[in-house]
Amino acid sequence: MSRPLDAQMAFLQEADRLKSVLRATTLGNGSRRENSGEHSWHIALYALILGDHAGPGVDPSRVIRMLLIHDLVEIDAGDAPIFGDQDAAALAAEEDAAAQRIFGMLPEAQGAELLALWREFEAAESPDAVFAKSLDRLQPPMQNLASGGGSWIEYNVSPETFEARVGSKIKRGAPGIWDWAWPRFKAWFDQRAKTGG
Amino acid sequence: MSRPLDAQMAFLQEADRLKSVLRATTLGNGSRRENSGEHSWHIALYALILGDHAGPGVDPSRVIRMLLIHDLVEIDAGDAPIFGDQDAAALAAEEDAAAQRIFGMLPEAQGAELLALWREFEAAESPDAVFAKSLDRLQPPMQNLASGGGSWIEYNVSPETFEARVGSKIKRGAPGIWDWAWPRFKAWFDQRAKTGG
């Protein structure tokens, strides 16, 4: 007879594969690309530390849960760099299929609950999801600042592209954090423009 | 004037260094050692998935917070392999000094709260800490099972040493999970004894 623990432990072992999915951003010291497992830890820690900057109606513990599972679909669908040129609709379909397969490994009620939580994150409409998305957008540019440019250089990103794809999402969920961060990001882009990079 | 976000973002960038601390256990596919950042994500996910197996009085959200921060001290003190021969008292002192430095980077009230949470985990007395410790002990042998032996082989671990240093801790905080896991671990040790490993 199959027991809940059989399914739960198989899911947790499957999740281990996320540590092998590489992202466009690097560690702060620039030594290597970071993987989606350690990234997921880092932004869950962002949520733990920055919860007080969330808007009304946000439950930081729920945001942490959301962020712990938000990238699991990349086990099947891979990481789509924010400055890349993927087909958004095709990627969304691929990620939803991945979510159904991966959360479908769990006992039925638990799998359904986490699939719903993941879809809520993706939809980016609820207060929790909007805040979670803003943290997911905030961590990569902070890594870029620390490493001296990172994916901004690799993808030759303009400040306009950065504001449209990243800044707007940070501002929406965490305007206070954006006010703190934007002058720092802008200083990097201004410096790069000055040196003709 | 220093603002909370200055301190919080400096702390989050310091935390990034945990991704460069390597552990004795490997990824499930055995391809490389895992680092303490991705390990922290994995066991926070263990807590999210296995919360229903906790004893009375355990708050899974609090356990997740505990596990997200439990290894940060390794940025200064390094990872002490469970089957290694470290001086426990010296290590405890080194880790407590690390906790004071690292959580001391945060705004005062927040730093004090997380230092207390970390010390609660280390003391392993409260229901939350006992459950968190059991998950922290459970994940490495699950990795070893997946990879075909891992640190059990590297440290030539006997089933008696495993039960004393690891099994007893898993059993204390999560007896139901231990009942599920022990026959699987035992089968590995039995097989190794049979093949003279």
Automatic annotation (TrEMBL), chains A, B:
This is HD domain-containing protein. Gene3D superfamilies: Hypothetical protein af1432. InterPro entries: HD_domain, YfbR/HDDC2. GO terms for cellular component: cytoplasm. The keyword Iron does not apply. Keywords: Hydrolase, Metal-binding. Residues 15-178 form the HD domain. GO terms for molecular function: 5'-deoxynucleotidase activity; metal ion binding. It comes from the Bacteria.
